[in-house]
């Protein structure tokens, strides 16, 4: 069968260059232009990589036009709330869902790796009160690389897998400690009798000695199953998202042969920005700033004003030019929780009014700007009594498995090379 090719012609001199068109299992075909510079002496120019496929991958598929997101072939709607987050981690890392025995075994492996070295606990002392947990989390994960140097022997499959499990298991502990340090309260160590997500809520909320808040009348502020289930679904919805900014950062750093935990720390840095994972924190600030349904029209006008840098946080996405399927799932979860937990109805009303106004407005419709995952996660996390500065660390906990799985794929890809783009120089 004839190969599919694309011919590019330089109109200045009539020279033509032919490139293979490669098809994946789904999604747009790609033109393999990897020899373009060698052939023509020219670079391609694509700021923000809007037309660039940077790698081949088998992990996550997104169809942004049709609101579709799949992990290893499974639609997100069949995973979030239907399988535990740890089963989804297993799926992402190993390519298939675990059997019930494998699921139990994996859960135990993660529980027993949730502790961190005592030396790493002390790193938090170096940061001032009020330090943002994203900063201390990033620093502690970077420091984690100094405790697991032996895992640089990536030829050893057992070590390779151990290294992946460790980072997933330890991230909630480090995130919870980063938060406790920021408010100056004693650290709480993991409780191996608790499942991953429950354990994280416990480490955030417990008092020294592992006691839960006494509510009087013999009642304790125990963690509710509905809270664990909601946060577990949130972790699943954040678990991977193909070649987004933070994952691309992890892959770029990994391509230099840096330590895997250093690559993960760089992903944390990239995720923190308000155009990426940091948006969930900004959504809450913005909803509180809007404050009342009657103020919504003036903020919509601000977002549309090209002379005003104000953007509607939680709206728009590079890939989804239609509804974000994660946001749709979260909206369903939010409606369910409204019944069962104490959701802030003033905030919910403002959020609903913003959404309704934006979805009707030609500015947002013409540009394909819909609510993204960050628009809904904040209201739900608030109902779970998660402090706003922990919203992005929660994104980190969920995404760690995606980063480390993408890192593994890069390491096992014989075609991988150091990431080294070029430039169009316009300086002196
Ligand atoms: N509010 C108002 N206008 C917007 C918004 C917004 N939230 N998002 C995009 N636009 C406008 C832009 O001004 C631009 O308009 P123009 O064509 O008239 O110049 C157009 O829509 C396209 O926007 P770009 O910035 O070119 O789109 P890009 O794909 O580069 O950016 C991004 C996507 C960064 C997510 C952007 O929509 C944004 O800043 N949103 C707000 C922050 C946010 O919610 N981020 C979370 C993303 S999800 C995640 O990372 C988990």
UniProtKB/TrEMBL annotation:
The lineage of its organism: Bacteria, Pseudomonadati, Campylobacterota, Epsilonproteobacteria, Campylobacterales. GO terms for biological process: tricarboxylic acid cycle. Belongs to the citrate synthase family. GO terms for molecular function: citrate synthase activity. The keyword Repressor does not apply. The keyword Oxidoreductase does not apply. This is Citrate synthase. It comes from Candidatus Marinarcus aquaticus. The active site is at residues 317, 374. Pfam families: Citrate_synt. GO terms for cellular component: cytoplasm. Keywords: Transferase, Tricarboxylic acid cycle. PANTHER family: CITRATE SYNTHASE. It comes from the Bacteria. Coiled coil: none annotated. Pathway: Carbohydrate metabolism; tricarboxylic acid cycle; isocitrate from oxaloacetate: step 1/2. It catalyses: oxaloacetate + acetyl-CoA + H2O = citrate + CoA + H(+). Gene3D superfamilies: 2.20.28.60, Citrate Synthase, domain 1 (1.10.580.10), Cytochrome P450-Terp, domain 2 (1.10.230.10).
């Amino acid at each position: 069968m004839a190969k599919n090719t694309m011919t590019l012609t330089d109109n200045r001199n009539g020279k033509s260059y032919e490139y293979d068109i490669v098809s994946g299992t789904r999604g747009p075909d790609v033109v393999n232009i990897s020899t373009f510079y060698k052939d023509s002496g020219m670079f391609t120019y694509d700021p923000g990589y809007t037309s660039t496929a940077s790698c081949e991958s088998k992990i996550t598929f997104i169809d942004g036009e049709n609101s579709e997101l799949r992990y290893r072939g499974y639609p997100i709607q069949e995973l979030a709330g239907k399988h535990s987050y740890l089963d989804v981690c297993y799926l992402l890392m190993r390519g298939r869902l675990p059997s019930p025995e494998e699921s139990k075994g994996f859960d135990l492996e993660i529980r027993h790796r949730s502790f961190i070295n005592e030396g790493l606990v002390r790193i938090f002392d170096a940061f001032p009160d009020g330090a943002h947990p994203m900063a201390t989390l990033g620093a502690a994960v970077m420091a984690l690389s100094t405790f697991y140097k032996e895992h640089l022997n990536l030829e050893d499959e057992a070590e390779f897998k151990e290294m992946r499990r460790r980072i997933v298991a330890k991230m909630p502990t480090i995130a919870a400690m980063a938060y406790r340090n920021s408010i100056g309260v004693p650290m709480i160590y993991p409780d191996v009798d608790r499942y991953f997500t429950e354990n994280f809520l416990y480490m955030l909320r417990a008092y020294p000695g592992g006691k839960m808040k006494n509510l009087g009348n013999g009642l304790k502020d125990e963690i509710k199953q509905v809270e664990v289930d909601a946060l577990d679904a949130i972790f699943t919805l954040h678990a991977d998202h193909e070649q987004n900014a933070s994952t691309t950062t992890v892959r770029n750093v990994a391509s230099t042969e840096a330590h895997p935990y250093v690559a993960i720390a760089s992903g944390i840095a990239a995720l923190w920005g308000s155009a990426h994972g940091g948006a969930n924190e900004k959504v809450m600030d913005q909803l509180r700033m809007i404050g009342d349904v009657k103020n919504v029209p003036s903020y919509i006008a601000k977002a549309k004003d090209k002379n005003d840098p104000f953007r509607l946080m939680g709206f728009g996405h590079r890939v989804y030019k239609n509804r974000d399927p994660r946001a749709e799932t979260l909206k369903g979860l939010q409606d369910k929780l409204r019944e069962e937990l104490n959701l802030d109805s003033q905030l919910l009303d403002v959020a609903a009014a913003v959404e309704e106004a934006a979805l009707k407005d030609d500015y947002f419709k013409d540009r394909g700007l819909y609510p993204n995952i960050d628009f809904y996660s904040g209201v739900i996390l608030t109902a779970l009594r998660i402090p706003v500065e922990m919203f992005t660390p929660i994104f980190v906990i969920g995404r760690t498995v995606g980063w480390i799985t993408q890192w593994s794929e890069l390491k096992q890809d014989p075609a991988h090379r150091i990431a080294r783009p070029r430039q169009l120089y316009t300086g002196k």
